Amino acid sequence: MATLTLTVPDIGGAEGAEVVEVLVAVGDTVTVDQSLVVLESDKASMEIPATAEGTVTALKIAVGDALSEGDAIVEIETELSTIPDPAASSTPEAPAADAPSAPGPSENPVDTRSPAESSVMTVEVPDIGTEGDVDLVEVLVAVGQEVTEGESLVLLESDKASMEVPAPLAGSITRLLVSAGTLVRQGTPLLAMSVQSHSSQGNAAPSASAGSPAKREAATTASDTASTAAPETGRQLSSGVGSPVTSLDSATGGRSVEGGSIYAGPAVRKLAREFGVDLLKVKGSGTRGRILKEDLHHFVQQALQGASGTTSGGQGAGIPVIPEVDFSQFGAIEETSRSRLDKVTAANMSRSWLNVPHVTQFDDADITDLESFRSEMKREAEQRGTKLTPMPFILKACAVALARHPKLKTSLAQGGETLVYKHYCHIGMAVDTPAGLVVPVIRDVDKKGLWELSEEMAHLAALARDKKLKPDQMQGGVFTISSLGNIGGRGFTPIVNAPEVAILGVSRASIQPVWNGSEFAPRKQLPLSLSYDHRVINGGDAGRFLTELVGLLSDIRRTLL
Ligand code: CAO
Q1: Ligand 1 centre from 421 Cα, in Å?
Q2: Which of 232, 281, 337, 401 is in the most buried spot, having the most CB atoms within 10 Å?
């Protein structure tokens, strides 16, 4: 075993690149090429990979540190006795393994003629640290353009880094062999350029790849879309300047949508994907409009504030916010802070309300027989140390109805392209607590009896009120029941607990005169309201489900069928 210090490789002269994310922790086992940190400068964004495998024993950096080539990142305990010499990565003639995403002139296969002549060379995609395809997001030069050695020619982008391929020598671009928006990989010919021969490029070879008709055709297309010259000279990993390419992943912070362009590094793109933010909507405050992490944070914050209606100015999520009023001008007031739970609930409710087209359907279940059975069981319940309220019956009836109408427990996925059917029946139950509303989830309701459900409900409700629910006890629900039966009211319209697609509201049961064909009879009626996501559930689905539920509650023997 040896202790190795993994250092910053040649990062294309991006001195003082800021650590924006540390991707490993002490104790982590890292493998070769696993990303250790994300660095960003105003010119570059890159994930720095490990050059040896081992266990992280010390972190030498923290978020916010400014790093340059050679600076220590982490120490690892490894079986290897050496690591690749980091200095090698900065030597163009000898690219090192620890700079996989830093293409260098020597890594470009170069075809030249004799050392004494002007010659045409084909510049190919160098070793970019991946064997797979990467996106060519921008061609930075045009045919006829003179470039200096190291000047950026094209911009590539993989999942992990954006990188500019530099000119291996000074010369003039004679042909473009690619265009923006195509996929390329190591060895793909990018362009042809005429160069003055260099004595150091002794292994001259004719430019065999530059003259084929197919490549000429590609060059014509590409030259039409060729962009401006690269702003910086030198070999560097750069943040991507998006070019107008076909939509790849617009909903997830992906590259671009038709006609738009994005200038953001991979870390920002990754974050945008996680938040589901379309980067085209984010205004960059960095150099040349580059989108910084702070811009993304600001965008998300604005959207959330707008959605929860907590701002007094601005237009979060495009929806006008409710103006703040100084109520003290009308009389005495007292302002109290809201619990975190209340604020989270507010944000969740707003999100669901704004995203889900709600429809609510109402019906009454005749629970007269259910109630007489429940009162018969009262004594037994007491003996068991529990209380049999209508809720376990409702849970059980919902489980049966959901099994017969599985669409009511689906969720939309893939941005609405698919529907996820769930072969389990975990049901959430809204619980009113002094700290706010929580929704513990009762698992496998379909497999449990009334006593078990009753005990579990009481247990979860108690945990909820004592603020002792664990996160996994509030996850995985397929459907939610919100009962205000113990409080009162004749009906309400609950908000769907997205990504679920339906929620049942239960109001207070009362004795109502019901016409039985010959007379009005006193029957106990339980008002039910079913809110549903009309993107998934249509009125027929909801009507059939609620009718089934009403039937089950009116005659609980039906749950056995
Ligand atoms: N009609 C008439 N009476 C009802 C009833 C109904 N629909 N539902 C319950 N009751 C009665 C119970 O039978 C019990 O009476 P007894 O003690 O005489 O039997 C009494 O009301 C109290 O019931 P409970 O609250 O202890 O138990 P529960 O099973 O009905 O409900 C729970 C449990 C956790 C759902 C409930 O306590 C609760 O927190 N409800 C509020 C949920 C909520 O806030 N929803 C709104 C969300 S959206 O803002």
Answers
A1: 30
A2: 401
Residues 265 and 368 in one domain: no
Which amino acid type is present at position 552? L
- Region 15-22: mean pLDDT is 80
Q: Which domain holds residue 361?
A: 342-560
- Enumerate residues 6+ apart whose C-beta is below 8 A from 3: 57, 75, 76, 77, 78
Strand 72-78 and strand 54-59: the pairing is: antiparallel
| C-alpha 552, offset from chain centre | 40
Nearest-CA residue for ligand 1 atom 45 is 482
Q: How far is CA 513 from CA 366, 384, 525, in A?
A: 11, 35, 9
- Mutate which of 380, 389, 512 for ligand 1 pocket (most atoms within 8 A of beta carbon): 389
Residue at 356 is within a domain: yes
Here the CATH number for the domain that contains residue 304 is: 4.10.320.10
Q: Is the pLDDT of residue 445 over 90?
A: yes
Rounded-to-integer distance, Cα 414 and Cα 427, Å: 23
Can you tell me the mean pLDDT for 181-209?
Answer: 67
Residues taking part in catalysis: 534
- Shared domain for 84 and 202, answered yes or no, is no
The pLDDT tens digits of the residues spanning 169-179 come to 899 999 999 88
Is residue 364 included in any domain, yes or no? Answer: yes
Q: Residues near ligand 1 with C-beta < 6 Å?
A: 389-391, 429-432, 437, 461, 482-486, 494, 506, 508-509, 526
Percentage of the chain beyond pLDDT 70 is 76
- What CATH code is carried by the domain that includes residue 434? 3.30.559.10
326 domain residue, yes or no: no
- 406 and 540 housed in the same domain: yes
Percent of the chain with pLDDT strictly greater than 90: 45
- Output the domain CATH number for residue 64: 2.40.50.100
The pLDDT tens digits of the residues spanning 79-116 come to: 754 444 444 333 333 333 333 333 333 334 333 334 44
For residue 398, being part of any structural domain is answered with yes
Report CA(507)–ligand 1 centroid distance (Å).
Answer: 9
Mutate-to-test residue for ligand 1 from 372, 465, 483, 487, highest number of ligand atoms within 8 A of CB: 483
238 and 284 share one domain: no
Q: Name the residue among 120, 119, 123 with its Cα closest to residue 105.
A: 123
**How far does the centroid of ligand 1 lie from the alpha carbon of residue 431, in Å?**
9
